[in-house]
Amino acid sequence: MGTGVFFNLPAYGHVNPTLPVVRNLVARGERILYFDTLEFKEKIEATGAEFRDYGFGMPAVAENRRKGGNFVQLAGVLLGAAEKGLPHYIEEVERLAPDYIIHDSMCPWGKYIAGYLGIRAINTTSTFVFTKGTLGKAGGFGGKVVKMARESGAAGVSAVLRSKKKLERQYGLKIGIMDIFRNTENLNLVFTSRYFQPGGDDFGAEYEFIGPSIAERNDAPGFAFDFAAADPLVYISLGTLENDRRDFYVRCIKAFAGMGVHVLISIGRNVKREELGSIPPNISVVEYAPQLEVLKHAQLFLSHAGMNSVNESLYFGVPLLLFPQQQEQVMVARRVEELGAGICMPADGADSGDIRAASRTVLESRNFYENARKVSDSFKASGGYERGAELILRYVSTG
After folding, report:
1. Coil/strand/helix, residue 322
2. Cα separations (Å) of 116 from 6, 57, 91, 110, 163?
3. What is the mean pLDDT of residues 387-395?
4. Which of 122, 224, 329, 366 is at a distance of 20 to 30 A from 72, taking alpha carbons?
5. Domain segments of the chain as ranges
């Protein structure tokens, strides 16, 4: 039995894919100590892992991930969290004496600790692997970075450089700007397939594309819905962070009113059902829905293009209409569209008529379903969380 320490971001999109892998490691006899914030304590402990609260610098990281979008500010927040937390984390890891460290691709402190203490490390990536090519998929990304730097101000850019220099000097590091978001190791597990990853065939053997980490989860207890009577079914959800979009839900309700489909809208807690006005009989509005179960029955998913949601939809062969709200979501949405498995829509520019027309285009074309199935096949051939756990154990036992 080995011991592993896991460092992750306080963000559902980063935590959720890792949980089945951790559960599988624990089932194989591993002891996993998982660092995150208290918001994720229950989820983490449900895997059998031991939860450890960060307590240092993570509120700023969590807030940045909620706001999203500005990579310059995110770089400053991540390096600031590393600078503040490293002395404590190094002391804690030395005390725990793990056999290996697993860290998210956006947890630079995990990589720094492993290097400083000479511990084998594994990187997990819940998004696309960022390269110049993938960033190019965002369209005009260079210009957007300049805009982000302006928005951050001289103080924001200086904070990034100051933290970078201090960490390099104190811990003997050499930090490239892109490294802050990648933190590559000798083994890198990516929760998608080589086929779906832009330029996937260009990555070396140190990158293992294991596909989405799909495992049954009880994320909406008490949910009751007659799937047999809702055919065809259109599912709408904007995820956990960006669902405060009453305007979007109202446009969708207008778009699908009277259309020959049943629509299930999961609105979260930030918008109340009564704020949406009259709900047509072919539309159901709920606070939460068990997404995996819904996608087993859906014919179309309207999503914010979060990587987890897109992965889950395509795993079940469900094409998408995508309304990206952050830069990394734009990359995902454009890749889906490039592979013919969905349509990328303007997040704010699409009116109800646009939504209705695009939905009909997808629902009435076999091509979208065939292309979604190709991605699904690539996911299922990648091995999933069981292969991820196996790769970790093989790596730490043989190097």
Report:
1. strand
2. 16, 20, 11, 10, 17
3. 98
4. 122
5. 3-211+382-398, 227-380
Please provide residue 56's backbone torsions phi and psi, each rounded to the nearest 5 degrees.
-130, 110
The answer to pTM > 0.85 is yes
Phi and psi at 114, nearest 5°, equal -60, -45
pLDDT digits (tens, 9 = 90+) for 4-30: 999 999 988 899 999 999 999 999 999
Burial of 247 (0-12, 13-18, 19+ CB in 10 A): exposed
Distance of CA 337 to the CA centre of its chain: 18
Which CATH class for the 227-380 domain? alpha beta
Bridge-partner residues for 122, per DSSP? Answer: 102, 187
Task: Look up residue 184 and give its two tokens.
Answer: 């590559």
Give CATH for domain 3-211+382-398: 3.40.50.2000
Q: How far is the C-alpha of 152 from the C-alpha of 354, rounded, in Å?
A: 35
Supply the pLDDT for residue 68. 55
**Average pLDDT value for the chain:** 88
